[in-house]
Amino acid sequence: MALVVQKYGGTSVGSVERIRNVASRIAKTYDEGNDVVVIVSAMSGETNRLVALAAEITETPCEREYDVLVSTGEQVTISLLSMCLQSMGYDARSYLGSQIPMLTDKAHAKARIKSIGDENIRGDLKKGTIVIVAGFQGTDGEGNITTLGRGGSDTSAVAVAAALKADVCEIYTDVDGVYTTDPRMVPEAQKIEKISYDEMLEMASLGAKVLQIRSVEFAKKYNVVIHVRSSFHDGQGTLVMKEDHEMETVLVSGVAYNKDEAKISIFGVPDQPGISSQIFTPLSENNITVDMIIQNISHEGATDMTFTVPKSDCKKAVEIVEKIAEKINARGISHDMEISKVSIIGVGMRSHAGVASTMFSALSEEGINIQMISTSEIKVSCVVDAKYTELAVRVLHKAFGLDLPEIEEVL
Ligand code: ADP
Ligand code: ASP
Ligand code: MG
Hints:
Blueprint: E1 3-8, H1 16-31, E2 35-40, H2 46-57, H3 63-70, H4 72-87, E3 92-95, E4 102-104, E5 113-116, H5 119-126, E6 130-134, E7 137-139, E8 145-147, H6 153-164, E9 168-173, E10 194-196, H7 197-205, H8 213-222, E11 226-230, E12 238-241, H9 245-248, E13 254-258, E14 261-270, H10 275-285, E15 293-295, E16 302-310, H11 314-327, E17 332-336, E18 339-345, H12 355-365, E19 372-376, E20 379-385, H13 389-399, H14 407-410
Helix pairs in contact: 1-4, 6-8, 7-8, 10-11, 12-13
The protein binds adenosine-5'-diphosphate, aspartic acid and magnesium ion (MG).
Adenosine-5'-diphosphate binds next to loops.
């Protein structure tokens, strides 16, 4: 007998029929003699609908009320799923984040989990009850509802699995695993059998939304093996786990893209100590995260600086940077929302030369201009014109041999 944590995403619970399908899967796992704790998302499209409702009222909703609103989608699915299991003759009980309790900090809309009470869950499991938990939400311990950021149910699931020391954490979604790139964009993408925490973290940070970044951070910290798999088909999915020797033999494991960033440039910045701090401190004080930064070689005491910020913060960032540019006597600023970041990821890069140059050649052969570059030990990212996103992803996917089925299958 094992303790199994399962998470079902929005598409998997997107209709009453699909909720019935999920209930059957849960029942099967339970009937095999396991204790089962289930985390569910809102029905697909529901959280977007709620966010849009808030936007109709105001551009700047109070964060507390925003969380009260957007957390409601999960309340619907936990109750429907529990009812469904009960009608099938199983004992099931739903829990909101605050009833667990799932304690978080006070950072509304991007709260971090601090602790998870396991008493209620363990009590239920002992009685043979299937526990159904609302994903994405928590409480700050003072009666306020918090949410964990978009896609946060993944993090709820991994955190619950870590707190309960579950034997397995299964993330059921609408694709049957983690692929070498988004299978909706590139049909030739291949399912990855196992991927290291670090590669998955890079994939998620660089745009692959199949798992929320924080869920992977949690899994790495508490050594939770995540099994990403389909809620529609049986069969093995992808294991997200500690790095092993085999993983190092693959040069590039995946290609990711992110269209959610914008680029801001400041021209004619005086090349003096303290200038970067004058530019970036006000941005961080306004909670704007800056991603890539490049600074040109200076000419006659002045230089140009370019950096990226989330698209949603671009307007605010431009207002701030305009003021700074005036203060530091820069020549001017510009911004571009039509950019996209394409990245290659792989732990194998650490021990191989020439990966970046293969990437640059592949892009240049298609006439795709690289606007910015950033690298780390296990990834290379390039900013390109947004209209080339799909082409760039396809070309890189091919250039690194990811279109080919896995070697075992070829032999
Ligand atoms: P859920 O609602 O189950 O949480 P998500 O929409 O958040 O599902 O995540 C699954 C989606 O992630 C897939 O439908 C797929 O389009 C997208 N995706 C992006 N990159 C990848 C990748 N490398 N592997 C698998 N899926 C990916
Ligand atoms: N329902 C939330 C969202 O759409 C959380 C999740 O699905 O993981 O972002
Ligand atoms: Mg998701």
